[in-house]
Amino acid sequence: MSLTSYSISLTARWLLGLSLLAGVSAQAADRPLLWQLQAPGGKVSYLFGTVHTDDARVNDFAPAVLTALGEVDVFMMETLPPKDQGVYLNPDQQLQELLTASELEQVRALAEVHAIGNMAMQMKPWLLAVVFDLPRPQGPYTQDIQLYAKARDLGRDVKGLETAEEHFGLLDSLSQQEQLGMLRAVLKRSQRDKERDYEMLVKAYLKGDPARIADIDTRMTGNLLPPALWAKLRVKLLDDRNDLMAPRIDAEAREKSVFVAVGAAHLAGKRGLLAQLQQAGYKLKRLK
C-alpha cells in the first residue's frame, strides 16, 4: 500500500464508523515530518507529512507535533468525511456481476479481514484495490483521523484541502475495466508481498526522508497499474493535487495560524508542497 493511492481513499475509514483512539509507540517521535511555515505577513503555521495507516509505530506523535497542533487556529487535512457515502459505491454494477466465482471468494475473505463485510460488493473496484493492498489491520485509527479528533477536542476549526468530489474524482475517472484491473492485480498479490512493501514504506517514513518516501511511494503505486495508465495518472495524483492544495494552504495561512496534515508523498519535489510554499514567500524550518 502506498501513500499516493491511500491518500485518495483515506476517508474510507470514515465509512466504517470507527472510534478515534490513539495507538502507542515511541518510534514516530524520532524525526517527524514537521515544518514551521512563516507567512510573508508573519503568521506562523505548520505542515506535517502523514502516512495514512493505523500502524502503532507512527501513531505516537512527537511532542513537537502536538505542541504545534495546540498553537493553531485551524486544522486542515486532505479531505473531511463526505456527507454522501455514495462516493464509496459503484453506481453501475455490483461485483457479483463483474468477477469470477474465485475472485469473489477472495474479495469476501479480504472484506472480512478489513472489516468491510457485505458492503464490499457495492464498493468501487479501485477503492477495494487500495484497501485490500494493505496488510491485516492493526487498528482502525489512521494518523489523519487521530489528528482530526485531537483538533476537534481542542476546539479548532477543521477544514479539507479538497472536497470529497475532488478527492475521489481522479480514480473515479478510470474506466470500469481499468478499476477491475487494479483490483485483480491486488488479488494476485500474496500477503507476504503486501507486508514486505508496507514495511519498506513505514520504515522510510520513520526515518523522516520525504524524498525517499516519495520515491518508494510512486514505485509501489505504479505496481498496481499498467505502465501507460500509471504514467497518465501520476501527475494527476501528486503534482496536480499539489497545485490545488498549495494555494489553498497559502490563502488560509496568510490569515490564520494553520496546522496542515497531508500525505508525506506530497511534500518533496519541484511541485511538492514544500517547494511551492517556499516559492510563495514562506520561510520554512524543519522542527524536531
Automatic annotation (TrEMBL):
Residues 1-28 form the signal peptide. InterPro entries: TraB/PrgY/GumN_fam (IPR002816), YbaP-like (IPR047111). Keywords: Signal. Transmembrane segments: none annotated. It holds the Pfam family TraB_PrgY_gumN. This is GumN family protein. The lineage of its organism: Bacteria, Pseudomonadati, Pseudomonadota, Betaproteobacteria, Nitrosomonadales.
